[in-house]
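This section describes the prediction task in plain terms. A model, or a person checking by hand, is given the sequence of a single protein chain and must write out its three-dimensional structure as a string of tokens. No templates, partner chains or ligands are provided. The sample shown here is typical of the held-out split.
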Amino acid sequence: MPAAVKHMPPTIMRIITTHTIMVRMITPRTTIRNTTIHMVMRTIMAAIITMMSIAGMSTITATPMLMTTNKPPPAKPRRRAVEATEAILEPAAPPAGRDSDAALYRLMTWLSPSFPVGAFSYSSGIEWAVEAGDIVDAASLREWLAAMLMDGPGFCDGVFVAQAHRAAASGDQAALRDIAELAAAFVPSRERQLETSSQGNAFIAIARSAWNCDGLDAMISACEGATVYPVAVGIVSAAHAISLRPTVHAFLHALVSNWISAGARLVPLGQTDSQRVLAALEPVVAATGARVLEASLDDLGSATFRADIAGMRHETQYTRLFRS
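The expected answer:
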């Protein structure tokens, strides 16, 4: 028996023996020759070896697949995860360009209705105007807000945004302090004072916590605590090197959007009517923004007496949903 056959596994040996017996049974004894037997044996051996090779390759191929599937992925170093978290939580740096994508991103964030300054809880006297019958539908709301934008608190707050931005950007702390003091005093009622000061303080607190940058603390300190909402927006935008024009227009858009939101809940109005009012006020916002950019502190003034009276009357209104 060949040496290769002696080292075959028992199962293979049984197969070879069986085939040998079958060959001897079907072949006459006289015609069997050693050569024939060897040829048959070689044929059987070749087939068995081929089968074993295929089985061996399948086993070798399957084993790594099982190991790859069942083996858990290597754990990432803890240090990398910590560094990634620290990078995410690290304060943002000022944008590279004054009109960069980062500047637009920050303006959209700061002046979004979801930015937590509590704007949703104030109506700027609109609640009393609805109760008094001055605002009854989308058309009357549009007229009321157009007057507030062009000749009332919209224009005045826009001027304070622009003046605070320019003073902060130039590093004129004395001018910034005077602007902040004037803006805090330039409100017609106690509730309007509460509205603008509480939103300004909230805006500054969140900016320091999540959007801090070099120079911001010094600008805020120059105001000596009188940081009402428009002044806060102007300071933070200047500290992040964001251009004045988009800052003013974004501020006015946020202001009128909040007024429309209050009116929609009070009248009430549907979402489509609210959007129609916002679309109709687009040219008014653009025109007011253009006036603001050319105005100085000497141009400050309000002629919306009915809106100012609404803010005062709201203080003693019997039932109220809003704080102003």
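For orientation: Residues 34-70 form the longest helix (37 residues).
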